[in-house]
C-alpha cells in the first residue's frame, strides 16, 4: 500500500530568525532546508531530512524541534526535541516507539527517521532550529 503525502515545511526559502538582543543587534538567520514532500509505504520507514546553515558559530546550546500536524487538523504537537547535546523523543503519542534520531548538529543535520509508517502519519512535519544566544 502506498501512503499519502507527508509534506515537510521549511523549504529553502524558510528561515528561522534569531535576534540575541532585540533592537540592539542585527538579526542572524538560520536557513533550514527540508524536502518539500516525502512519500512512504505503510509498514516501512522514512527519513525526514532537516539541514541548516548559519553564518554564525553553531553553539553548544543549539536546539532542534520537530512538530507534527495531522492532515485535516489545526493543532501541531512536538514529537522530538534535541537540546544540550541530547535527543529527547516524546514518551507519549503515536511516534514514541517509532522514531529514531539520525541527525548530527555539528554537521548541521537535524534529521529523524520514522519507522513502521501508518496512514495516521499523513500530515505536515516541521523542523525548527534555534542557535542561541
Task: Give the SSE layout.
Blueprint: E1 2-9, E2 15-18, E3 28-34, E4 37-41, E5 46-48, E6 50-54, E7 63-70, E8 77-83, E9 86-89, E10 99-101, E11 112-114, E12 123-130
Parallel strand pairs: 1-12
Antiparallel strand pairs: 1-4, 2-3, 3-6, 5-11, 7-8, 7-12, 8-9, 10-11
Protein name: MYP0 protein
Pfam family, one: V-set
Keywords: Disulfide bond, Glycoprotein, Immunoglobulin domain, Membrane, Signal, Transmembrane, Transmembrane helix
Shape: globular
- Determine the mean pLDDT: 82
The level of helicity is under 10%
The termini sit apart by 46 Å
**Total count of helical runs of at least 4 residues:** 0
- Give the biggest beta sheet: 6 strands, mixed
Strand order across the largest sheet: 4-1-12-7-8-9
Beta strand count? 12
Radius of gyration: 15 Å
Ranges where pLDDT stays below 50 over 5 or more residues in a row are 1-26
Could you state the oligomeric state of the chains shown?
Answer: single chain
What structural category arises from helix and sheet content?
mainly beta
Report strand %. over 45%
Order of helices and strands: EEEEEEEEEEEE
Family: Belongs to the myelin P0 protein family.
Keywords: Disulfide bond, Glycoprotein, Immunoglobulin domain, Membrane, Signal, Transmembrane, Transmembrane helix
Subcellular location: Membrane
Organism: Pygoscelis papua (Gentoo penguin)
Amino acid at each position: 500500500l502506498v501512503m499519502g503525502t507527508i509534506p515537510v515545511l521549511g523549504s529553502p526559502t524558510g528561515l528561522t530568525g534569531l535576534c540575541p538582543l532585540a533592537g540592539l543587534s542585527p538579526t542572524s538567520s538560520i536557513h533550514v532546508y527540508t524536502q518539500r514532500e516525502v512519500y512512504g509505504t505503510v509498514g516501512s520507514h522514512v527519513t525526514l531530512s532537516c539541514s541548516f546553515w548559519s553564518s554564525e558559530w553553531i553553539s553548544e546550546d543549539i536546539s532542534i524541534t520537530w512538530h507534527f500536524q495531522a492532515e485535516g487538523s489545526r493543532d501541531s504537537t512536538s514529537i522530538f526535541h534535541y537540546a544540550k547535546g541530547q535527543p529527547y523523543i516524546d514518551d507519549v503519542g503515536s511516534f514514541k516507539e517509532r522514531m529514531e534520531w539520525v541527525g548530527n548538529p555539528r554537521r548541521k543535520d537535524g534529521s529523524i527517521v520514522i519507522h513502521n509508517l501508518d496512514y495516521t502519519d499523513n500530515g505536515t512535519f516541521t523542523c525548527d532550529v534555534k542557535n542561541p544566544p
